[in-house]
């Protein structure tokens, strides 16, 4: 019997935030970007599909991502 399970959820952080936004505001959520800090630098950790279509990528400097969206 196999007890291992692997699930790939590449958009989980942003999907979760979007769902919560829709539930609270009953409207389309704004563009969602999850940030991480490396020292003093603010980088994109994850982005919603709308942001990715605009060119936002993981590891990008947050200020650059804001300029695209």
Give your account of this protein's structure:
The protein has 69 residues and is of the alpha+beta class. It is built from three helices and two strands, in the order αββαα. It has helices at residues 12-25, 49-53, 62-68; strands at residues 33-38, 41-47. The chain has a two-stranded antiparallel sheet. A hairpin with a 2-residue loop joins strand 1 and strand 2. The protein is globular. The protein starts with 11 loop residues before the first helix and ends with a helix.
Quickly describe the structure.
The chain has helices spanning 12-25, 49-53, 62-68, and strands spanning 33-38, 41-47. The chain is of the alpha+beta class.
Distance between the termini: 48 Å
User: What's the rounded overall pLDDT mean?
Assistant: 89
Main sheet summary? 2 strands, antiparallel
**Morphology call:** globular
Q: Please give the order of strands in the largest beta sheet.
A: 1-2
Derived structural class: alpha+beta
Helix content: 25-40%
Rg is 15 Å
The fraction of residues assigned to DSSP E strands is: 15-25%
Number of helices: 3
Number of strands: 2
Order of helices and strands: HEEHH
Unreliable spans are none
């Amino acid at each position: 019997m196999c007890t291992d399970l692997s699930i790939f959820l590449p958009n989980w952080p942003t999907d979760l935030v979007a769902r919560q936004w829709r539930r609270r505001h009953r409207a389309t959520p704004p563009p969602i970007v999850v940030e991480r800090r490396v020292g003093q630098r603010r980088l994109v950790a994850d982005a919603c599909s709308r942001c990715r279509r605009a060119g936002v990528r993981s590891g990008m400097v947050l200020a650059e991502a804001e300029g695209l969206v």
